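ZP: hey, is the magnesium ion complex queued? I don't see it on the tracker
AM: it wasn't, my bad. submitting now with these inputs:
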Amino acid sequence: MTRTPPLLEVNALKKHFPLRGGLLGGITGQVYALDGVTFSIEKGETLSLVGESGCGKSTVGKAILRLIDPTDGEVWLDGARIDNLPASQLRPLRRRIQVVFQDPFSSLNPRMRVRDIIAEPLRNFGLAGGGDVDDRVATLMDTVRLPRDAMRRFPHEFSGGQRQRIGIARALAPGADLIICDEAVSALDVSVKAQIVNLLSDLQDELGLALLFISHDLAIVEHLTHRVAVMYLGKIVEIAERRTLFANPRHPYTRALLSAVPVPDPTARRDRIILTGDVPSPISPPSGCRFHTRCPYVFDRCRTEEPLLRDVGEGQKAACHLDELPALRMLPQAA
Ligand SMILES: Nc1ncnc2c1ncn2[C@@H]1O[C@H](COP(=O)(O)OP(=O)(O)OP(=O)(O)O)[C@@H](O)[C@H]1O
Ligand SMILES: [Mg+2]
């Protein structure tokens, strides 16, 4: 029996940016932005990629979109390898994978009317012409719950949330199977954030879209995502179904991130874990487990031996030596 490939497969992806310096501008080091990232996304599935600033989330998105070339590893779309496609063959990829960025204002051309912004990908990919264009744009306006008369207006006439709806309509226009949302709601007010998250969730149901939802905020993904991947310094340290991850986080870093997420039930509480120390530099990541310099449970082995991302049951994977020492897992959470 042949296995249906996932929509997207990212395999051992690496991106090292050369650091230039000195008088002659030679290469003096590397920024290890991604150091072996592996995950997949099924059709119609949302995977959230979370972690602190600088851990490599946007670099994952850019490598999938081929806005940057990976240093190593593979990216597959529907069973076809896309990370090594020559520039001349990127067109179909540009149609199938779309992106919505954090700041819709800078990604929407201020001199174009909304109609033309949304019509542009339709024309570019030869998906509509003549009178069809207005019909398609009007339908997309309905899809993202914007009034049709907004078509005649310019981006500056809209609020942040509405602009993000325009950005989503443009991403939907070419009929993409995967939308990468890179901090797409991070700059919005709390209530608007929730509206856009609900819209994305509805669209996913209606259109069978797959989403890679990139966010530094674990709280925002709880109502949207099927699975969560937690990144730390260029690596995934834990990946699991949403419910499993929120109920039973295995990696101390996931626990620390989760401890900052408010619990809706006032009688329940999570002990807050405050991480000490700064995120280490990706130019010289710590030896062994990259999290060991900030981990409340660190022991000798963590400093020398890198923990692999291992199955810990029910599709949950974690990269932590603690899981091999069940007794230690019983330690109280750090204050
Ligand atoms: N073009 C580049 N040249 C050199 N270093 C880069 C480049 N792009 C990103 N980096 C570095 O790679 C690392 C990962 O960056 P990335 O933008 O992927 O992080 P992020 O998780 O998206 O962070 P944020 O939450 O702040 O958006 C950072 O240390 C960043 O400084
Ligand atoms: Mg980013």
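AM: back. The pocket of magnesium ion (ligand 2) is lined by residues 57-58, 182-183 (CB under 6 Å).
ZP: great, adding it to the tracker
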